[in-house]
């Protein structure tokens, strides 16, 4: 399924800024403020300001930086995950050891290597985001699992049935409609103002799971 999106995805993503590759290093060159992730539903969009009701119930204004861009997410499947793919996997520790995936994002090839590593994430308490290259994907008695490698390390992550698997897809400003679900990774200044350069918006019934 994923492969049929490849040409359009590449065209949509070649201008993607580093901030889209989830990771703390993505903000190292931006002194506007501390990194912040906003998840919620659009209340209003004025062209330069996106008003979002967050999952925490707060309504915030996000100033869109010059040259800002937007992408959507497209549904993929576990079978689309191939050795050599670059993925972002949010996961939680499992009771019996190891990690279990909360979601999987298959990055377009143009973004391979950006934000590489494994670090704390705020999708759920104690969650982790791992951006890494797929070493192998296997099926065993416990379901699907994927082994990924980053900076010379390896990590095996179980992918339970029902785990959202998506990739990035083209979008336009017209997709920023009231009630559309968004994921925004931006910067929060000391005065509380939030700015961002890229929006990921849900479309066609698929919402950003990250």
UniProtKB/TrEMBL annotation:
<feature type="signal peptide">
    <location>
        <begin position="1"/>
        <end position="20"/>
    </location>
</feature>
<keyword id="KW-0732">Signal</keyword>
<protein>
    <recommendedName>
        <fullName>DUF5666 domain-containing protein</fullName>
    </recommendedName>
</protein>
